[in-house]
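Need residues for this backbone.
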C-alpha cells in the first residue's frame, strides 16, 4: 500500500513538472513571436514617421518654390529665382523618396503617390511657364493671372492629396503604436502568467498529494453522514405518516359526527349551523394540512414517485368540481370549461388531485362570497393544460417569487386562515410530472394559475 501511494504521488509530481516545463516553453515561444512582431512594428513606426516628415517637407518646399517664383516676378531678383529652383529640386527629391518609401505600400497608397507626382510636375510646368512669360514680357499681367489661377487649382488638389495621405499615415502610426503597446502588455502578462501558473502548479501538486491522504477519510465521513441523513429522513417520513394516520382517525370521527349533527339540526338556528360549518371546515383544513405535510416530506426525501397511468381527464375534472361544490360553504360557483378533448393523458391521479384541489381551495378561500371560479381544461401541442381562475384578492408583485416556498403567505391575506403549504405542494407535484406552472394576477381583481403537463410519458 505504501509503495502504491508513493508511486501515485510520484506520478503527480512528474506530471506537475512536465506540465510546468510545457507551459514555460509555450510562453517562451509566444513571447519570442511577440518580440519579432514588436520589432517589425517598431520598424514600421520609424518608416511612418519618416513618411509623415517627408510629406511635410514636400509641402514646405512647394510653398518655398511658389514664394520664390512670386518674388522673382515682382522684383526680378536672380537670388529669388535661385531659391525657387533649389526648392523645385528638393520637391522632386522629396517625391522620389516618398515613392521609394511607399513602394511596398497598398495599391491605394501607390496610386496616391503617382497622383501627387503628376500634380507636382503640373505645377512645376506652370511655374516654368510663369517665369518664361515674365522673361518675355514683364508687363503681361493677364497671362500671369491666368497661370496663377491654374496654379492655385493644382496647389489645392496637391494639398488635399498630401493632407489625406498624411492623415492615413498618422492612422497607421497610431495603429502600430497601439499594437506595440498591446504586444508589450501581452509579453508582460504572459511572463506574470507563466510565473504564477508555474507556482500554482507546484502548489497544486503539493495540495493534491496532501489531498490524496485525506480523501479516503473524508469519503468515509461523507458516506456516514449520508447514511445518517437517510435514516433521519426515513424516520421523519415514518413520524409524519404515523401522525397523519393517528390524527386522521379522530378527525374523520369528528367530521362524520358534525355531518350527522348537521343532518339532524336542519331546523336549528343559523348560529348553531354556523358552528357546525366551522367544525367541518377546521377538520377539512387539518386533513389538507396533514396531506400537504406528508407530500412535501416525501418529495424532499425522494420517496414521492409519479405513477403515470391513462386517465379520463374530463370525468376526473367533473368529479373534482362536484366534490368542491358539495363542500363549498361560501356558495362560490365553480364553472368547468372543456374543449371536448377525447384523449386519455398519462398522469398520476393522486398528484393531479393534489394540484387541482389546492388551486381550487385557494381560489375559494381568497375569493369573496359568490364570486365565480373557473376550471378550464385544454390542450397545447403535446401537453394538457389546466387553468384555475378566480376574482379574489390577487397576489402582489413582490410576493410572486416566494409563493411556492413552504409556509410562505402573501402580505394581503389579512385574517384569512391558511398554512402556506398549498402552492408548495402544487409546485412539487408539477415538477414530478415534468410540467410547468405559470401565474397571472392583479391585486383585488383576481388570479389565474396555468398548469401544463406532458400528455405522454
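Answer:
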Amino acid at each position: 500500500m505504501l509503495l502504491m501511494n508513493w508511486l501515485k504521488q510520484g506520478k503527480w509530481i512528474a506530471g506537475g513538472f512536465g506540465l510546468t516545463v510545457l507551459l514555460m516553453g509555450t510562453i517562451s515561444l509566444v513571447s519570442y513571436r511577440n518580440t519579432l512582431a514588436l520589432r517589425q512594428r517598431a520598424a514600421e513606426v520609424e518608416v511612418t514617421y519618416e513618411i509623415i516628415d517627408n510629406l511635410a517637407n514636400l509641402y514646405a518646399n512647394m510653398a518655398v518654390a511658389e514664394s520664390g517664383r512670386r518674388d522673382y516676378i515682382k522684383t526680378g531678383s536672380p537670388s529669388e529665382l535661385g531659391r525657387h529652383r533649389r526648392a523645385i529640386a528638393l520637391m522632386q527629391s522629396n517625391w522620389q523618396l516618398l515613392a521609394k518609401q511607399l513602394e511596398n505600400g497598398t495599391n491605394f497608397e501607390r496610386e496616391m503617390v503617382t497622383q501627387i507626382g503628376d500634380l507636382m510636375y503640373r505645377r512645376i510646368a506652370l511655374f516654368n511657364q510663369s517665369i518664361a512669360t515674365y522673361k518675355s514680357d514683364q508687363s503681361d499681367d493677364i497671362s500671369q493671372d491666368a497661370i496663377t489661377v491654374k496654379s492655385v487649382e493644382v496647389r489645392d488638389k496637391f494639398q488635399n492629396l498630401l493632407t489625406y495621405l498624411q492623415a492615413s499615415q498618422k492612422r497607421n502610426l497610431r495603429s502600430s503604436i497601439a499594437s506595440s503597446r498591446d504586444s508589450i502588455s501581452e509579453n508582460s502578462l504572459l511572463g506574470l502568467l507563466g510565473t504564477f501558473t508555474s507556482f500554482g502548479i507546484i502548489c497544486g501538486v503539493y495540495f493534491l498529494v496532501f489531498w490524496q491522504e485525506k480523501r479516503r477519510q473524508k469519503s468515509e465521513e461523507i458516506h456516514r453522514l449520508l447514511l445518517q441523513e437517510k435514516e433521519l429522513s426515513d424516520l421523519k417520513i415514518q413520524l409524519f405518516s404515523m401522525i397523519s394516520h393517528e390524527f386522521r382517525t379522530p378527525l374523520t370521527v369528528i367530521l362524520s359526527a358534525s355531518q350527522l349533527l348537521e343532518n339532524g339540526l336542519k331546523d336549528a338556528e343559523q348560529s348553531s349551523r354556523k358552528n357546525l360549518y366551522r367544525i367541518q371546515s377546521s377538520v377539512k383544513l387539518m386533513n389538507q394540512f396533514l396531506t400537504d405535510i406528508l407530500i412535501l416530506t416525501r418529495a424532499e426525501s425522494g420517496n414521492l414517485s409519479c405513477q403515470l397511468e391513462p386517465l379520463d381527464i374530463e370525468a376526473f375534472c367533473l368529479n373534482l368540481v362536484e366534490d368542491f361544490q358539495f363542500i363549498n360553504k361560501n356558495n362560490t360557483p365553480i364553472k368547468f370549461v372543456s374543449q371536448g378533448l377525447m384523449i386519455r393523458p398519462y398522469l398520476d391521479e393522486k398528484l393531479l388531485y393534489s394540484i387541482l384541489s389546492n388551486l381550487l381551495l385557494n381560489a375559494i378561500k381568497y375569493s369573496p362570497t359568490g364570486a365565480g371560479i373557473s376550471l378550464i381544461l385544454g390542450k397545447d401541442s403535446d401537453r394538457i393544460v389546466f387553468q384555475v381562475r378566480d376574482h379574489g384578492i390577487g397576489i402582489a408583485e413582490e410576493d410572486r417569487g416566494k409563493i411556492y416556498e413552504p409556509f410562505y403567505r402573501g402580505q394581503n391575506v389579512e385574517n384569512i386562515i391558511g398554512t402556506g403549504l398549498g402552492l408548495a405542494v402544487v409546485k412539487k407535484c408539477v415538477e414530478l410530472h415534468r410540467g410547468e406552472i405559470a401565474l397571472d394576477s392583479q391585486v383585488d381583481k383576481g388570479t389565474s394559475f396555468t398548469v401544463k403537463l406532458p400528455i405522454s410519458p
